[in-house]
Amino acid sequence: MLEREKPVAPAPVQRSEARVQSIEMAQMKLTTRLLLSAIVVICVATAFFHGCHQKPKKGVNETAVRDVMVSDATVWTNPFSKTSPIYREAEEFHQWLLDNRTLADEVDAAGSVDKLMLAGQLATKGLARLPTDLLEQRLPLVGRMLASLDTHTCSRFIRGEIPDSEFISYAAPIMESFSAAEAKAWFTVNGSAIKAQLGNAPILVLSTENAKQAIFQIAKSMQEPEHSAFGSGLAGLQTESDEDACATARTLYLKGNSLAEPYRGYMARLLLTGKDGHQKP
User: Fold this and answer.
1) Where are the alpha helices (DSSP H) in the chain?
2) Is 219 in contact with 233 (CB distance < 8 Å)?
3) How far is it, in rounded angstroms, from Cα 32 to Cα 223?
4) What is the pLDDT of residue 263?
5) Tens of pLDDT along 51-88?
6) Roughly how many angstroms between the first and final C-alpha of the chain, as a whole number?
7) What is the count of structural domains for the chain?
8) pLDDT on residue 50
9) Which candidate among 6, 22, 27, 183 keeps its CA 20 to 30 Å from the CA of 105?
10) Contact (Cβ atoms closer than 8 angstroms) between residue 52 and residue 67
11) Which has the closest alpha carbon to 263: 203, 206, 219, 210?
12) 206 in a domain, yes or no?
């Protein structure tokens, strides 16, 4: 009598499915609570416009940071080294702001609001109105800033605990390392966001489903134990240790920028557009 073949144990597949379900649960928590995106965009988008009124932290390149008073839009000191590509782009962008009549009308309507301060606010709000290709130009640049920060500063940054005036002292050295193309892209995005906000362009909303799909693509690219660490990191981003929170945020930017389309665009919109650019849970 022939012995029956024993069925192949499905345990590895079941464990894999369990891990996928765990990641999906974490993704939903992230996308519905909008954990990270609305915090990061505010610091980064306004860094250029606000002056640095605090002494740079020890070890920060002080030659790249000047005291800038912006109570008068005509009195402005370029915070970047003259030898860096971003210095020239900042000069041209500042002149564009001064010459922008629509922006001037908005300043008059806002009373004593300074043009540079208003420009920073408009750029922040306008990011959600930008097409995906512009957001994708910004994504790797913000990722480089995040990667340059020490663990404690990185954690404070993603939790919104660093004011703009302090953040520029950390951001300026990284922005000075931008290539000519990257420097131009940085201010192109800022200018486009301002124009989009002034022109009341429609807000482009990322659906919760698309956000979840993008994060799932990141999770699928990982092996254990990185896979599990990423899932638990998403679920506890606001409460976990500085090291773990920073590692999770850096993973979102680094791996998000490496995704194929359309997922890369989804991640750019998720991370850079704040609450206005996301579907309400």
Assistant:
1) 11-33, 37-46, 85-99, 101-109, 115-126, 132-148, 151-158, 164-175, 180-198, 208-220, 226-235, 242-257, 263-272
2) no
3) 25
4) 97
5) 333 334 444 444 443 333 334 445 678 889 999 999 99
6) 62
7) 1
8) 46
9) 183
10) yes
11) 210
12) yes
| Domain range for 101 | 33-277
Whether 26 is in a domain gets the answer no
The DSSP secondary-structure symbol of 112 reads T
Three-state SS at 35: coil
| The two three-digit tokens of residue 155, written as one number | 């954690």
Question: CA 253 to CA 12: how far, in whole Å?
Answer: 30
The residues, ordered by sequence, that sit 6+ positions from 185 with a Cβ below 8 Å of its Cβ are 137, 138, 141
Residue 204 CA to residue 206 CA, distance in Å, equals 7
CA torsion, ordered 238, 21, 221, 147, to nearest 10 deg:
0
Virtual torsion, Cα 57, 58, 64, 68, nearest 10 deg = 40
Q: Which residue has the tokens 């920028």?
A: 257
User: Whose CA is closest to 144, among 266, 37, 44?
Assistant: 44
For residue range 127-137, what is the model confidence (pLDDT) as tens digits? 999 999 999 99
Give Cβ neighbours of residue 101 (< 8 Å, ≥ 6 apart).
Answer: none
Cis check: omega of the bond before 56, within 30 degrees of 0: no
Q: Are 240 and 233 in contact (CB under 8 A)?
A: yes
